[in-house]
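Subject: Sanity check before I submit

Could someone independently write out the structure tokens for this chain? I want to compare against mine line by line before I put it in a report. The sequence has 267 residues.
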Amino acid sequence: MTLVRVGDIELDYERAGSGPPLLAIMGRSGTYSHWEPSFLADVRGDFDVIVYDHRGVGASSRLEGPLSIRQMAQDAAGLLTALDVDSAHILGISMGGMIAQELALAEPERIRTLALGCTYCGGPGSRHTSREVVERVAQAVQSGDRERAIRASWEANVSPAFAADEAAWQRFREIGLRRRVALQVIAAQTQACIEHDTSARLGEIGLPTLVVHGTVDQVLPVVNGKMIAELIPHAQLELLDDIGHLFFWERPQQSADLLRAHAAAHA
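---
Independent answer below. Compare away.
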């Protein structure tokens, strides 16, 4: 645990690796431990990787009051400032991708390249999680059985084929049991995601942008990735066939390769 003061809060972060800075922004209900270990180890070979917990998560400051994507983007920018990082490559997945969009719009000079994974921009044509998936996960959470809730989240976040991978499931299960995010924080993050809408502003982003999305994503359907890539000028779209929401768990080496190639192409 390493805490750094960011404005009026503290954020818990880890920093390791060699190369240009890369800020990796985690999604809703996740912690920095939820980055797939081999993916993180791979990118640390080419980047100085900064991962962190959002306000309300882990050892970061408690959540006080409502939450917004813009506020979390300000936290991300503040973390870079606190760590004396003038500019960085940015990777945001799911809610973290929404935060990365707002960061790119507010402070483009802080960003070398932008990578948006399994995320959403709001607006006409975008799609939320289906009612069926929401109800299935909610029922598991409401059961009070922690392991059942983690399993339901696992099955929603990866493809059916990968959900059956026992070794991967055990790694995800251990993280979920060890690092729990409070339900009230998840609820606040969920509301922030629902209110998020950058669709009318994405055309203002002039940064080199990579969009990655699995074609069988149950949490944020692939139409969202296609829409973002269409709205951001010259964005590169990479669709991963038969892969779910957590693409960097299912394809860690390919995900790292995509990130590395994108950064190198725009060095």
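---
OP: Matches mine. For the report I'm noting this point. The longest strand covers residues 9-17.
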